[in-house]
Amino acid sequence: MFLRSIQLRDWKAYADAAFEFPVPTKNKNVVLIGAKNGYGKTSLLEALILGLYGRDGMNALARASAGSGDLIKSYDEFMQRALHAQALPQGRTSITIQIVLEDALERIKVVRKWHFTGKGVHRAAEEEVQLFSGKDEDPIRVPGPRPSREEKDEYYRSLIARKFIPFHLTEFFLFDGERVQQLAKQQKADTVKMGVESILGVQLLRELQQDLTSYAQDRRRGVENIEDETLTRLNEQIASMEAGLEPCRTRLRELQDEMGPIETRIEEVTRTLRTMTGGNSANVKELMEDQFRHRRQKDKVEERLNQLIRSDLAFALAGQALRGQVQATLQSEIKRSEWLASKNHTREKLDRILDGIQAPSPPIQPDLTEHQVGVLRERLSNVWETLWHPPPDDCASEERHTYLTETERRKVIDRLVRIERLGVAELEQMLSDHEEATVAINRITQQIASLSGVEDRIREMTDELQELNRRLGELREQFGSLSRQEQADVGKLNDLKAEAGRMAARHESSLPNRNRAKKAELIAGLISESIEDLYPRYVSRLSEEMTTIYKQLAHKTLVKRIEIGTDCTVKLLGDKGHDIRMMDSSAGEEQIFALALIAAIAKVSGTKVPIVMDTPLARLDTDHRSNVLKYFAAHAGEQVIFLSQPDEVNGTYLKVIQDRVGKAFHIEFEELDNGVGKAHVRKGYFQGEEY
Amino acid sequence: MNGIPLFEQGEARDALKKRCRQAQIPISLLEALVEAEIAQIGKERKRGLRDRFDELLDPDSEAEGE
Q: Is B46 on the interface with A (CB under 8 A)?
């Protein structure tokens, strides 16, 4: 799109001014605006940037007009100073900028209005922006019901960026001479890097990358880290436990199948016995059960007796006298062992006492002879020996059971004591119980037989019934044991299933956030890789474009090729391939490099928008000025607006672009009282040329 | 798309499309994320950006489905 008009109301020196620009054609695409220093050229550039982007334009403004100290101030302060000096005294409390953008298919009007208090304080919250479309200027509605002011601003900002100049490229299309000089002063590599990053929109993409990474971290935080593998492992454990239960359940079914016929047979035998005993089967059954109980009692007693025979009977049969003698001997041997241990312990102390005889202090006059010392040591040893004699009364005179340790002696004594406690009474009681059980079993057998009078048959059946009951008892015991095992396993399985269920639910609920985080990280990585991938391609294209443009701008023909490395280092190569940047270059030549970069960026970006250059020719010599004007007028954009000082684009230079100028303005300045003034827009250039 | 050549111009767009295909990310999703980021320019704090990311990165979102 190109600029069709810009209208300023109470903006800086412009109380009320309008610039109408012609539709650019292939041969007439230049607009020339002349003004002396301080008459409003830079104000016009600022109006364009802030009119389009509002507060967001401040960053672009700071870069595009690098030379103006005003621009680093806050937005509010900047706006307060932008209000025309006569506005407040004359009762006007707002600034309005209207910009019309057009192309063959579309017309968009941007109206931005800033409001102030009666004392000139900026009412930031009341800033208005409205976009209109078409010749009828229909308001462009922001989608959605009742959009907020913020949503409205966002929508318009995005629309302007899309339709006109992408925000990150503003400084390469709307700029002043100071910006060019600033670029010229930078290291070449930095300048080129900044250019490539601008084309790619790298700054924004890196911000997006960082925001996505930070978003991913945020979404992962607070989400339970249940990995798919954990859940799978748990489910596998459940499946394994269920599989492990199957043999147990199969065995339980087999036991039930086995018990069923036995129970049936028991009922049949019981019924037959009832018939045989005249319906007194209840008694037979009870007797059978009673007999079974006595048998178990008898078995228990026999088992206990067997145990006694195996372990303690031999000792018991040895007699109390012998056992007592062995106990006493062992006890006396323990005493002897303790007596000897104590004696040996004091023996070490005796040695220290004997050594004390030869101690130097206190002195003995005259010194003891060696013989005397020997006699003293022997006497003391003898005295010590007498302390341990005779041994205690209950101490053995010798150790008979030398194969036993002290602990083993004590164990043997304990065992013998236990045998002492096994009284005859207890043994008699066991024998008595055994006898009683045997008698009861025989008695019950006779009772059962006598009940029917068909003793043999009943005995057979009774035996069968007993066998059946025994077998059923065994099976029930197995069944009970397996059932308890199964129930325990099922309990564990249910706990595991519940845990798996809870984990699956938590896993399910955290899935969306984890998926988002995963995707955000994936995209952040993709952005990073894409930048790395595309960077060299754009560097290469920029290198080619800069070579072409530089050759057209520079009057020296030394530079044959501009080579930019992937790290953005720059070489200006001469015809023999040597880097002529090693030689000193003038400020003007550096500026030519910067302008070539700006033009190359504009071209490589593929953006079709106007170029507005404020005092672009500062520091350039005659040839360079002509080349720059010629190139930018003819190749840089479909519409080029030069804001020029009187001695900048004039005479010879004017002639260079004269044929391409579609329209020209010059700004006159009317000085008012108190050092303030008013800018007036007049048609025609300084010398009154009409275009 | 807001002058990000990465998403607009032939060669760059083709390269990006290829990468997106490999990563199984719809290019429309990437474009929507860039739009969301652009909408934050000039703001002191990136209010609402995370909510917008939530919407866009949701498996059922429109950008995702394109």
A: yes
